[in-house]
Amino acid sequence: MRLGLKLFLGFFLIVGLAAFFVMRVFVEEVKPGVRQAMESTLVDAANVLAELAAPELKAGTLARGGFTSSLARAQRRDPKAMVWRFPKRALDYRVTITDAKGIVLYDSLGRDVGRDNSRWNDVHRTLRGEYGARSSPEVPGDATHTVMHVAAPVYDPADGRTLIGVLSLSQPNRSIDPFITASQRQIMLRGAWLIGLSALIGILMTAWLMTGVRRLNRYAQAVSAGEPVAPPKPRRDEIGDLGRALETMRRKLEGKAYVEQYVQSLTHEMKSPLAAIRGAAELLQEPMPAEDRERFARSIVDQQQRLTQTIDKLLALAEVEQHGWLQSRDTLSVATLFAAVKQGAQLRAQAAGVQVQVQPAGSMTLQGDGYLLRQALGNLLDNAIDFSPAGSSIQLIAAVQAGGIALQVVDQGTGIPEFARGRVFERFYSLARPATGARSSGLGLPFVGEVARLHGGHASVEGGASGGTRAVLWLPR
């Protein structure tokens, strides 16, 4: 299982389960909460009605008095009320009054007159001076529909202490069931929204965290593969700290290995010129003809120039290779780029008797570092001049190729021997120049390859269609 999915599931399980259990608590508390509120209301109403019924109960005129008449008229009323989207068209109260022995003297529904209710919990506890209430089935044997009964003592109006009866006020629980169901439905709906919002927050949090982790992973993979890659974008958290630490570690490790490699390479390449200089210097200390002395002195100068060129090229290559990514990127005109490269090599081309021709590139543009691209194309053009016979021409050509732009330097020289084609981009590998037999530093083409790498492209050298050599620097558009 991937890390992002684990993070999301962990976050969702914690928040989602917490929301689910809290929602269940709310749902389970709705019914008892509403019924407790209903019981409290019944207590108030029962005690008010008990006070109103006390005079007639003492006088024995309850059956024909004004209290029962008023209750009968009230039960015939249509409240025409709309309580929280639910219509209420009748009163749900039922009033039962018993004497001091628990015998029913009055029933607003006219059902239980004369019945002994003293065994019922509401009447029984009230007769004992306690708070009496009960919940019983609305229809005997049907436990799904119940009725809440609350009793209030009826005291003698004369002293307010003598118990003369009990008034029981009841209301079916089904009258409040729609409100309970609606409340539970609202809680379930809001809970579903809460869980959905938790899932969305979990997705966003996971995506935010995994974006940084994926960038670090891509960066580490690219560094391991030796690909050019910019350091991760700065962040003000632990992931940002880790990215900066990885970049610092990469620079230190690469710098150490780089220095070791270049010291070895430079030492190896300096041995031959230094040995030649030493040999010539030792011979110059001995008597010899002027012609030989001049030849050995010229050899020292040539070897010194070779050493200088090698060091300069090596420093330029080191600067490019140390860049893990392209430092600057501008929109460049190919025509302007070719013109600058041609102008820079014009004197060498004239001295070699070679003509440099630029094929029109129109309005073709590319993205890259202008300085590095000019240097790379200059190296390719220098090689082409060195290997081209006098009187020949060199073409600078730009063409759209494989979704990118191929910058080509095509000469009419001797071409590349078969044995050397796989090694021309190796550091310090060089072929003898046809005109002089001298070799270059062998660092020009590796420089071109590094510039191509920084731009996300590649470089190649191949035989031309009609002889000669075609050097290609391919860059993505």
Automatic annotation (TrEMBL):
Organism: Stenotrophomonas lacuserhaii
One Pfam family named in its UniProt record: HisKA
Keywords for this protein: Cell membrane, Kinase, Membrane, Phosphoprotein, Transferase, Transmembrane, Transmembrane helix, Two-component regulatory system
Catalytic activity of the protein: ATP + protein L-histidine = ADP + protein N-phospho-L-histidine
Domain HAMP residues, every copy: 207-258
Keyword Transferase among record annotations: yes
Gene Ontology CC, one term: plasma membrane
Annotated Histidine kinase domain residues: 265-477
Membrane topology term: Multi-pass membrane protein
Transmembrane regions listed in the UniProt entry: 7-27, 191-210
Matching InterPro entries: HAMP_dom, HATPase_C_sf, HATPase_dom, His_kinase_dom, HisK_dim/P_dom, HisK_dim/P_sf, Sensor-like_sf, Sig_transdc_His_kin-like_C
Name listed for the protein in its UniProt record: histidine kinase
PROSITE patterns, alphabetized: HAMP, HIS_KIN
Gene: creC
A Gene Ontology molecular function term of the record: phosphorelay sensor kinase activity
Subcellular location per the Swiss-Prot or TrEMBL entry: Cell membrane
